[in-house]
């Protein structure tokens, strides 16, 4: 039960962090491209504003790097922008692999808990009453399930 609780807390924590970090205003703010175009047209773009725009959003980081490398040849420019895009991609996809792994492991932990509980129950029954585990297993296998009750109505 405790490992499942820990997995649930981790999933909720990662989901809240991702939803906070991936807000539209932090990834693609409104009017950012117009703001950058105005700065470039008026020759007001300096290093201080470039750093501020880069820190503002992921798109700002990519656009500032496009401006920074605008004088390179096309092939070199493409490779530089691809490198920066990969950096942004990694920052945007942070913790998603962990989220998928936890979501995969959690049902298996639940199944393991069920099996351990069954083993504990059978062990307790055989120690106290000397019951036949084969008979108990047969009874559990043939016992009616909630699904059977719903189908018979």
Provide a descriptive summary of the structure in words:
With about 150 residues, the chain is mostly helical. Helices cover about 80% and strands about 0% of the residues. The protein contains nine helices and no strands. It has helices at about 1-20, 25, 30-40, 45-55, 60-70, 75-90, 95-130, 135-140, 145-150. Helix 5 runs antiparallel to helix 6 (about 75-90). The longest helix is centred in the C-terminal third of the chain and has 33 residues, at about 95-130. It is rod-shaped, with a radius of gyration of 29 Å. The two termini are about 35 Å apart.
Can you lay out the helices and strands and say which pair or pack?
Elements: H1 2-21, H2 24-27, H3 32-41, H4 47-56, H5 58-68, H6 74-92, H7 96-128, H8 133-142, H9 146-152
List keywords for this structure.
153 residues, mainly alpha, 9 helices, 81% helix, disordered C terminus
């Amino acid at each position: 039960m405790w490992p499942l609780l820990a997995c649930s807390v981790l999933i909720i924590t990662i989901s809240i962090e991702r939803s906070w970090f991936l807000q539209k205003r932090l990834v693609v703010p409104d009017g950012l491209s117009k703001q950058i175009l105005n700065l470039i047209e008026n020759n007001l773009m300096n290093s201080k504003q470039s750093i501020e725009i880069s820190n503002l959003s992921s798109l700002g980081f990519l656009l500032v790097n496009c401006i920074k490398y605008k004088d390179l040849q096309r092939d070199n420019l493409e490779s530089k922008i691809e490198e920066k895009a990969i950096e942004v991609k990694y920052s945007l996809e942070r913790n998603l692999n962990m989220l998928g792994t936890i979501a995969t492991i959690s049902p298996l932990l639940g199944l393991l808990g069920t099996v351990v509980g069954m083993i504990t129950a059978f062990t307790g029954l055989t120690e106290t009453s000397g019951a036949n585990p084969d008979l108990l297993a047969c009874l559990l296998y043939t016992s009616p399930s909630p699904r059977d009750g719903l189908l018979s109505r």
